[in-house]
Amino acid sequence: MRCWLFWICLLLFVTGLVAVPGLDRANVRVADGFDHPVGKPNAEGYYMARGFLSYHPGEDWNGAKGGNSDLGAPVYSIGDGYVTFAMDARMGWGNVVLVRHAYVENGKTLFADSMYAHLNTILVRKGQQVSRGQQVGTIGTNHGMYRAHLHFEIRKNLYIGINRSAFAKDFSNYFRPGQFIAQHRRLPGAGQIASIPINSYKTDREGLPYPTAANSLKNRAQGDKSPSRGGTFRVNRFGDIGY
Ligand SMILES: [Zn+2]
Q: 179-200: per-residue pLDDT in tens?
């Protein structure tokens, strides 16, 4: 008797436990593979000028003709996803687009953020769904700070946003972008919809949630090995310089 009530309560309880506390969610198309962000789909006409380094957890992509020859050239989303950040972050970053992707690997649904920085123009807005190969902006100079190039990162830690100095610049938080793309060109899951956590960044102008000790611990229990550094958000002008 009343057995169904017990099971409904249990289901609600378990659903509550699985959800990441304090984060909103959005539905997104599961990425069916990833392509390069320039010279789509294979980075044709571009070369990697700077790779993944201990102080530079991403890759810089330049046009083959060098200098500012790639200024204004298109930058593409590497896969289907959801725009979580699209604004001028200033500092060393300039115009930044961040896209959150859900993808299926070994039967598990995983998440990753792709970052496109120093853009000359931003062509998407926060909250927008994008497709693999959809243009999100153009290559820029971060307001004249650098010669034109794309600074590109792929993160496994969904809390980084533009607050890079608060997180270790290593493979606990990042993927090596070129390697990640090479290993994930075509994936299962086309046509599926996944629920992704959103609003996980703290920025200096939007006041979004930042991981508290409680939900950092929760994520670590779910396999997230990122350092649990919550607390006051501060911009480190040098640590957050984007190159
Ligand atoms: Zn860079």
A: 999 999 999 999 999 999 998 8
Take residue 45 and report the two structure tokens written for it: 């006409």
Each residue's pLDDT tens digit, 144-154: 999 999 999 99
What spacing in Å lies between the alpha carbon of 56 and ligand 1's midpoint?
6
The whole-angstrom separation of Cα 57 and Cα 174 is 7
Euclidean distance between CA atoms 103 and 16, whole angstroms: 23
What is the 13 CA–ligand 1 centroid distance (Å)?
44
Report which of 70, 86, 197 is spatially closest to residue 136, judged by C-alpha positions: 86
Structural domain contains residue 79: yes
3-state secondary structure at position 62: strand
Look up the CATH number of the domain holding residue 146.
2.70.70.10
